Amino acid sequence: MKKLLLSITLLVGFNSFAQLTCATAIELTADETVSVPELTGTYQAICWGTAAAAPNAIWYKFTPTQNGEVTVNADLPQNQSAPFSNDQRVSIATGTCTALTCYAGYDDIDDTNYNVNYTFPVQSGTTYYIVWDNRWLAEGFDFDFSFVSASCIRPNDISINTPTNITTTSATLNWAAAIGTPPGYDVEYGVAGFAPGTGTVASTSTTSVSLTTGLTASSNSEYYLRSDCGTSESAWVGPFTLFLAKTLPYANGFETPQLSDGFAAAGWGLGNAASGAQAGTIYYFSSSSTTAASNSLLFSRAISLQANEQVTLTFYTRLGSATGTNNILKVWVNGLPSATGATQLGADITVSGATYTLQTRTFTATAPGIYYFIFNNVTPIVTAATSLRLDTFNLTSVLSNDEFLSSEFSVYPNPVNNVINFSNNVNALVSSVKITDLNGRVVKTLDVNATEGQISVSDLASGMYMLNITSDKGTAVKKIVKQ
Question: pTM of the full predicted structure?
Answer without folding.
Answer: 0.75
